[in-house]
Amino acid sequence: MKVLSIAVPCYNSEAYMEKCIHSLLPGGEEVEIIIVDDGSKDRTAEIADAFAAKYPSIVKVIHQENGGHGAAVNAGLKNATGLYFKVVDSDDWVNQESYQKILRSLEELIRGPKTVDMLISNFVYEKQGAARKKVMQYRHCLPVSQVFGWNEVRRMPKGKYLLMHSLIYRTKLLLDSGFELPRHTFYVDNLFAFEPLPYVETMCYIDTNFYRYYIGRSDQSVNESVMIKRIDQQLKVNRLMVEAYNRHAIMNKKCRKYMISYLDIITTISSIMLIRAGTPEALEKKKKLLAFIRAKNPSLYFSLRHSMLGHVMNLPGRGGRKLSVAAYKIAQKFYGFN
Hints:
Elements (H helix, E strand, L loop, with lengths): L3 E7 L6 H8 L6 E8 L5 H11 L4 E6 L3 H11 L5 E4 L5 E2 L1 H16 L6 E10 L6 E3 L10 E2 L18 E4 H6 L12 H4 L10 E13 L8 H6 L1 H16 L6 H25 L2 H17 L1 H8 L2 H6 L3 H19 L3
Parallel strand pairs: 1-2, 1-4, 2-3, 6-10
Antiparallel strand pairs: 4-9, 5-10, 6-7, 6-9, 8-10
Helix pairs in contact: 8-9, 8-10, 9-10, 10-11
């Protein structure tokens, strides 16, 4: 059995997918690379098939009708045979030295006495044109190179989140939980990093800069103008995260606190994008989002509304909205968003 299955969702990825896949091949026979051609119209299918022909014991290709990023991840998970599962987007890549360290760590964990549900590593914002690369690391929040549970997680400040780029899940945990992402929906990486958490009991953090997250394409989903155009997709994911939170009686206090903090930043992003849109319709959508959260879970609404970010995002009037935008611009520089 393979140690790690890596799903590579591809849609019209001919311009950059080869760099991604070449970075994954050094994993050798321990790794299964699942390229999911999600109804591409360019040479993506041809490139994927060429890799599968050349590396038949490592690369597997799935061709499917277009269903969006979530459908591609679902297909990768459904066809995964590795003990652990990771998603690497086709415009991103991994660092070779860190890759080997991750694989060695997974092998040691598999042989160890404890089952590990989630492996965490660092990722780097490969922002085009940036003189310095921002690294998302967790060494001050998580025990390093040891198995731990939620009770050992230290305070995670705002801006410090376990995103899809930093996570490797135990495959069976995802399958047993019934995890499935929605089709034709952007921003589902937030669901990937959120929904499985109540099922996660044991974790291990490897302090290495493994994943390289490319930011720079004008059509990228984290481009601010694109996010405003796709605000209904962001709102859909925001609501799905609230519903996922509601489905569980999350017993561990630290897990619950972290999930609320994650919802806080996602709701803040939704709110600020609606403020940036600036139309009466957008501001009405902002009110409806908060009303939805309040109706679904009054306690959660109270936590979000009275957080620091909740206060900043809901200052009254035009002057308040200007302060909200100013706060967002500071966060934008800090987080490295496009």
